[in-house]
Structures are given as structure tokens and as C-alpha cells.
Amino acid sequence: MGLDEDALEYHRTDPPGKIEISTTKPTNTQRDLSLAYSPGVAAPCLEIDEDETDAYQYTAKGNLVGVVSNGSAVLGLGDIGAQASKPVMEGKGVLFKRFADIDVFDIELDDSDPDKLVEAIKMMEPTFGGINLEDIKAPGCFTVEERLREEIDIPVFHDDQHGTAIISGAALLNAADIAGKSLEELEVVFSGAGASAIATARFYVSLGVRKENITMCDSSGIITEDRAADGDVNEYKQQFARDVPEGGLADAMAGADVFVGLSIGGIVSQEMIQSMASDPIVFAMANPDPEIGYEEAKAARDDTVIMATGRSDYPNQVNNVLGFPFIFRGALDVRATEINEEMKVACAEALAELARQDVPDAVVKAYGDDPIQYGPDYIIPKPVDPRVLFRVAPAIAEAAMESGAARTEIDLEAYEEELEARLGKSREMMRVVLNKAKSDPKTVALAEGENEKMIRAAYQIQEQGIALPVLIGDEDEIKQTSANLGLDFDPTVADPSVGDYEEYADRLHELRARKGITRSEAGELVERDSNYFGSVMVEQGDADALLTGLSHHYPSALRPPLQVVGTDDDVDYAAGVYMLTFKNRVIFVADATVNQDPNEEVLAEVTKQTGKLARRFNIEPRAALLSYSNFGSVDNEGTRKPRKAARMLQDDPEVDFTVDGEMQADTAVVEDILEGTYGFSELEEPANVLVFPNLESGNIGYKLLQRLGGADAIGPMLVGMDKPVHVLQRGDEVKDIVNLAGVAVVDAQQE
Asked: What is the pLDDT of residues 488-508, one digit of tens each?
């Protein structure tokens, strides 16, 4: 099937459409229903009657946006009417929810009279926290937005005007920086004079472009003062009329620094690009066909053409989804009365700054694994970059507070953490650990320091103040790679080939001489194997923790630290633990990486160490030792091991958390089974530490929970070591390295 057929099938699959209403509170019992509706609902109604602002406390108003359209100017489709525009408005709702966790009612109004639209929307003000106007044709859209901003007390934002303005404005900030040009000196030409073009031109002036340097062209040519005097252009176009000779788009583009296309495809030639100033900036944003093709514009000149389009299949897509969800998120969370110019500028500046930072691996993978780095082909962030939420929304909230648009003040540092939590429980949990790490950073040695991911992780670790990273490897290569990546940092490097590390070789020989390693072999291992070098470095106290394993099989990466650092004094066995985060639950799974066939003593030790780890995440452990048997229902050698381990732990005065077993996995995690059938269990609530009977079941279990249960996995985290060591998995992303560095620092703080 083609795209159209696929889209039709996508939309009509039961249930039809793309959005639904779901409940956010329990509705399982008669009491639940009496609280949700009659008679309990009277209480919040009366509170709101006393104080209307309580609607934000007792209803969904504070997270609800109305997407309102009459379908008179749908992108690429034109005036298709209210009913036909509904799929687009539902789609807008999907984007609000997906990117900023904002709920939406789509409202299609069957009228083209701006006055009637204003009156209809005004009557809906009590329902919504904000209004997103969509696909309303010019010049009526200007009237509707301007009047609503004056007459209602919630944010109103016409995305067709301001979305493109803000996102292309962010691109302009970076394009000018790369081209080495000053905003106030830029000569800017617009092709198109509709709502989006006019709003974009206005916004560029807010960013610092001189109004007198903007030349706007409509279908009749350059908008001049003579045309304005003759009544040839409407009042909105007149503000950009220039005292220049009349002419066409080609005349306007000669010598221009910037071309902004918001018109129709194919109207710009290579000759017109060639006529522009040096290193021209070309934003050809007509959809689906730009004013000039990407390859065509790039090939027109020998110097740098910084090109952006509205298409996702070329670099620098000007995509409004980078703006509206996050603008409303910030505005809603401070209960803003409007979305003003200061907030729009803050959005553009935050996006521009984000594009200059290192790009997460997940984003790179989403776009084909090709390197993504600040430069002519990357001047605005990618829409799937999760950092946009907690960079843009706080910038909007801060601008709203500083400009007086906010009804409520918020703590911006705490707010960023709340936004991260919206992206998943794993981010919320890691934030706990990373904040602890930042309170007292430690030195973390990074083996495999020449690896690009390790270098990028070191940059982020240092930039965020999580730890003091030391990269182990060839210093020249590491620093060259760092420079090639455009990272603004001077990495700390331990280079085994040039430094005086004879004492490391002596120590390794001392530890392993009776295991068959000669002094010369110890010297070679220290010089050539960063795992041994890093292990000795930590064992000697020159670093507080070690991360390794990025390019090695797990067992081979684990072997050097086990041989050199070893387990804690009162621990005989290390173990690998994954933290699995679900929407409303966190579970620690052990052992998933180290001990193949543990006996009861090992199971007990693993449980104790995993309980300690849970507390580092501020989770009070409740441990279940798992089997296919429930409390003796099957009696054999395999079921006795977890049963004995549970008893050992229950009798151990040093174990101050709840432990029980052996039990089946569903018994451990389902409250009704635990309290009903097995009310005698020591566990009063479902377990959050699951100890599997062997490595095989632990590894299988965590992967099933991750893949089929939709859990995010953090780890494996190595517990039981004498000093903090964590072994990464091959293919881990930079964020995984950063997260484990945070865990390692908190481990070191406990030492």
C-alpha cells in the first residue's frame, strides 16, 4: 500500500481516530464512583464556586489545551472546512500528549466570521488552561488571536503564525553564528506574506534583525511603500513595506544574506541563490516542496549554504513540534495569562543553545546513526530529542515569571526535575542519584577512554558536575577526538604509555604473582589493558570508582576488577543488578549477570547487597526470593536454596528490611495474591527487590520485563565490590555511562 492507503488504515483501525479520554483516578468501587461523581463531586464544585482559581487544583483545567480551528487554511489542503480538519486537530493533540504530556480537546468550529469565532472561544475559557489556534486563514487569524489575547485570561497561541517564527528564529540565531554574521546587519528577504511570514518577520525583529533590512515579497512582487500607498496590500503587509523600487523576488534576493520561504515550491532558482551574499542562509520552508530543493541550493555555490526546509528527510527541519508543546507546558505550569514576546524569544534561545550541545545517542540512532554535530547541517534540535522538554519549558516558565505573565511562582530547579519525571520513572529515579552525586563529586576512572562514547560521557559528567572523570588511554588521540566532536572541555587523561606507572605494575604483580602473572606481564597488562590499569588505579586510591566494559564481553571486562579490586571485606560474591522502572513501580532484579548457580549463602548475600543499592535510590527494600514454588509447595534441592536464604536473612540482625521466600514471581508482585492467599507472608506490600534463583532465570526475567512489560532498565549495577566498579554492556549509550557514573559516585560516597 502507498502512504495514503496506509494513513487511511491507520486512522480507521478500531477505535477510529487517534485520541481518547482516560481516567486518572480509581473507578473500581462504589466509593470510587461516589467520589468521582455524585454525591462527592459537590465538594470541589463548592470550593471552585468560592474561588475560581481552585479549578486548577480540583480539575484537569491546568493541563488541558483547546486546539481550535475552522479548517479554513489547513497546511497543503487549504480551506477544507471544520469537519474535514478534525484528523489534523486530533493529530495536534497526539503531539501535545507525546511530547509534553498535555491533554487536548480538539474543537472544530463551522464558521469563518472572526467575530463569531472569538465569541465561541471566549465562552469556552472556563474549560481550558490554554488555547492553540490552528489552520485559520489570514487575515482573520490575526483578528481572532489579537482579540482573544485582550479578552480572555488564559494563554492564546496561533501556531501557524508563531510556531514557524520561533523555530526558524532559533535556526537563524545559530545560522548567523556559524556564518559569522551579526543579526542586526543581516539583509533578509521573505517569499510569502501570509500569517506565518508576517509573524516570522515580526519575530526576527524581536531577535535583533532590523526591520528596515527586511524585504517581503508576495505573489505580486516586492511590497513597496508605493504599493502600500495605492492600497494594493492589507494592513498587516503594510508594516513591512519598503521605500525601494518595485521588482520581483529575484531582484529582492540579490545581495541578501537570508532567504525565508513561506510561499510555494520551486520558485527559487540556482541563479537566485548565486546572487546572494557570501555564505547565504536559505530557509526554504514551503511544504511539501520547498522553494528550492536542498541539493539544488547546496550545489549552487562553492561557499557554505546553510539550508533549512520543512521536510524531515533533509537536515535542519523547521518543525513546529519543537515549539508549541513545550511553550504550553511552561505556560500552563506557571498558570500564565498569555504567551508574550519574551516567552517566544526565550523558546528560540533555548532551542538554539540546545543545538550547540552534544546529541544523545538515542537521537542519533533515530536519524540513521550518522554523526550529528553543531554546524551547517545541524542548527536546530531534532524533534525526538527528549531534552527539549526540560530545556524549553523551564525557559518559558522563567520568562513568564520575569515578564509578569505568570500567576504562580515555581522553583525552576525542582521544575526541571518534575519535567524529567514526565519522561519516565527511570529519569525520576536517576535524578535522585545524580543529585546525590553532585553534592560530593568523586573521581571516576573511565577505561576504554579512546572510545568516542566514553569521551562524550566524560564531557557530560564533568559539565553536569556529577564526577571528576579521568579517561584512560592515548592522550593525543583522546584530545583529538574531543576536538573533532566539538566538545568544549579539556579532558583529564591517564595515558599508560607515557606516564610513570611502574608502581601500578608492581602492585598488580604483588596481587597476582601467585596466580601466574610475572612482573613483565604485569607491566604489559597495565600499559596495554585499560581495565587492569583502571582497576589498579582504583585499588590504589588514585580514583574512587571505575567504569569499563563498553567494548568487551561482560565476563572479560569483569575479570580484571574482580582480580584486583575484589569484593568487600564482609562479602564473598559480587552480583549484577538491574533497576527496572515502570510507570508507577520500581523493581530491582538480581542476579542477572554474575553468579551462574548460587547456593543459599550467595543468594542471601546478593539480597543484602541489592537492598543496600535500593536505598541509594531512596527506595525502602522489600525482598522476595523467587522460585517456581510458594512457601514449600514443592520441596526439592532447587526450591530449598531460596527458602533457606530467606530464613538466613530473617535471622540476621543486620538485615533491617523485609524478606520472604521462596515464592513465585506473581505472588511477589501482585498484592491480591500476597495478601489474600498468602496473608501470612512477611511481605505486607509487593516486593521491589526480586532475587532470582540462578543467573539464567535472572537474565531471562529482566529481559522479558524490559521488552514485554515496557520497563526501562538501568544497569547492570555491580554490588558487593570492595570499591565502586560498574561494568557496562557493549552498545550502551552515553546516557547509560553517565547514569552509572552517578551510581558509582554515590557508591564512593558510602565508602
From this structure: 888 999 999 887 889 999 999
